[in-house]
Design goal:
The structure holds 2 protein chains of 2 kinds. Chain A is of the alpha/beta class. Chain A contains 9 helices and 10 strands. Chain A has helices at residues 42-50, 71-77, 93-103, 108-121, 137-149, 167-182, 194-200, 218-224, 231-239; strands at 2-11, 16-26, 31-35, 57-62, 65-66, 78-81, 155-159, 186-191, 203-208, 211-216. In chain A, strands 6-7-8-3-9-10 form a 6-stranded mixed beta sheet, sandwiched between helices. In chain A, helix 3 (93-103) packs parallel to helix 5 (137-149) and helix 4 packs antiparallel against helix 5. By secondary structure, chain B is mainly alpha-helical. In chain B, helix 5 (71-98) runs antiparallel to helix 7, helix 5 (71-98) packs across helix 14 (245-254) and helix 9 (149-161) runs parallel beside helix 15. Chain B has 26 helices and no strands. The chains are: A alpha/beta, B mainly alpha. Chains A and B meet through helix 2, helix 3 and helix 4 of A and helix 16, helix 17 and helix 21 of B.
Amino acid sequence: MLKVEGVSKSYGSGKIKAVDNISFEVKPGEIFGFLGPNGAGKTTTIKMIVGLLKPDAGTIYINGINNQVDSINSKRQFSYVPDNHEVFEKLKGIEYLNFMGDVYGVDKEKRKSEIERYLNLFDMEKAVNDPISSYSHGMKQKIVLIGALLHDPMVFILDEPMVGLDPKSSYNLKELMKKRCAEGKSVFFSTHVLEVAEKICDRIAIINKGKIIAQGTMEQLKGDARDKESLEKIFLELTEI
Amino acid sequence: MKEMLILTKTLLNANFGFSKFIHDAKTDKKKLGMALLLILVFASLIPVYNMYIKLLNTVYIQLFVLGQEGAIFAMTFSAAAIVVLFFGLIYAMSTFYFSKDLDKLLFLPIKEETIVSAKFINMVVYEYMIVVPILAPVFFIPFEDMGGVLYALFFAIGVLLLPVIPLSIGTVIVMFIMKFVNIEGKKDILRTVSLFLFLVIIILFQFLVNRAATAIPPGSEGEYIEALLRNQNSLVNIVGRTYPPAIWLSKGLYESNTASGIISFLLYGAASVVFGLGVVVAGKKLYVQGYFNKSDSVKKHIALEYDKDVVASSPWKAIFLNDMKMVLRTPIYLFNCVSIVVIIPVIMILMPLISGGGELDMFTELYRDFKDIFTFLLIGIFVFIAGTNPTQSTTVSREGKASWVNAVVPVSKRDAFMGRMIFPIILQTTAMMFFLVPLIFILKLEVSTVAFALIGGLASSVPVIGFGVLVDTYRPKLDWDDPQKAVKQNLNVLFNMLAAIAFGAAMGFAIYFLFNVAGLSVEVLVGILIVASTLMTALVYSLYNRIN
């Protein structure tokens, strides 16, 4: 469903290698966690997947579509929630949701039911008619989440989704991720919260200094470690090399 | 004092992005190319600057002959002060109200007056970029006649203090407007409209004062000239009437060696200090206290009506509406992008009309004798107006950190291009109407002139607007903390203007040739213009399509 093959990206005229020849695949019905310390290359990788950055080398397929060859079609396959939740501050929440519905071509009836459903789920009905500039950090994150879910994407890509969410919304989001995967869709997200990754991810990749240093199911990662330990210990052990 | 210096230094660094530039230049040599390009753009302005210096020289020689050489200071310093006041109003609004950095400063152990002072000094330093180029030649031209240590010292201090008084006036006015014009829901628009109205009043007031101050009663021209010749530098008082501190500074400069000159200069310095302190006091009372009394912290939610509020439109329309709402709802964009539509026609048409000078008759005659050329002149002006409007050349930049949204959504290039073109085209059409409607009455324009100017002007504005969208999509300025920077510190606006001038000049030459040499009619030439503009738009669009 999401396939990253030999992707690299450098900054500063090639001096700093942010992502170095990485490959992984997220299968249908899978929640895939992407872990790594600060500056490891997580956000750069995600930005290449969603089309915000162009890879120097390698290919990325989203639902079988090469995102460099047919970018518009590939963009229809996923939706993205970034780690910064800056959206058009001068719009009202509902205007932003309408905008997202328009650009993804969601018809009015489906839009109405989806907006109602997610506003309820994330407790945003009261605030949705207010300007986004009046929202708190968490509310902005929720409006971005709702906007991203309107067109019911096959691949749901999130960068640090749990940061800033209240416990109830965080729980609801995790449940939503599981439900989507049960329907055969995929979720790919980066996180620093290892407990979340340990609990809900089917598979995990750990990136450090631009390279993927481990990937597999929790069991496989534990198998690689010296003794059967927590993800936190595995993470620390691997990234301190 | 120390903390004020530290804060001022930090704010200056953040505002001008010195550290970021040095870091970028060290890590990515490509960024240096941009700096070189900027130097090149400024270098291209040297001939214009040279003309300005020559003009000053001529004016000085003429004043010298009349024994009025001191008036050169009063003229230039009061002109610079008015420019500072004009830009200062907008800049004060941005520095104190739209930059939102007070949130990051108020919890620090820094006195409130220090914050206000540091922000104000930042504005003063920023204004040096306008003031120094205007005034630097004025130092050298009279140097031979008046030069000396005190002259040099007074001049340097005079220039450094020059922005203080007009900026203080501007800042306090803005603080008053922001404090008292505060109606729930319509706050931003009302504030912008008040500021805009105030600007118009200043321009008109300034203009009327200027006219009254320099007008000579009919029949007394001889006496006037005699008085001028009798009293050395009496012209300073007349010219300086529009801005009295300029009189003190002028006297300080041309009489720098006398006690009266030194006293005048000290008066100027003292006035600047008093005004500067006034800002600190007003800042504490109106600005910082205003922050704590924000009335918009408590508000009512409006319930969503699904049938009415959930609406669907096509992608290009969604992009257009988003673009337009952002401009109309952000005061600084409303001011820079929309008000220009009214300001330019007002300045270009109403000013000569109010002044009642000979310009009006000249244009009426020009129109009567050269109708066709006048039509093309109008089209040329419209192309220039299109190029100076920053709406299209900041369309992506204005989105700032939210620009990721439009980058990840599946919108075709065609829809994106169309969506971003429409609002600037609406603004351009409005500007043309604001320009043409008064001219219809003043110059009694014929229907054919109006129709050709409108059609030709709109057609040739489209590629200029398209170029603005293209250049801002290619190199948007997204890294800003204050929305003003997306427009005011955005080189794309300058590139768009230069492109408009180049396009206008090329079309102008072609039309001149085809009209005079080949003898083609206006109808045919407007047709050619439409074809050429369509081809240029197609070229711009094909380049836009190639941007990743």
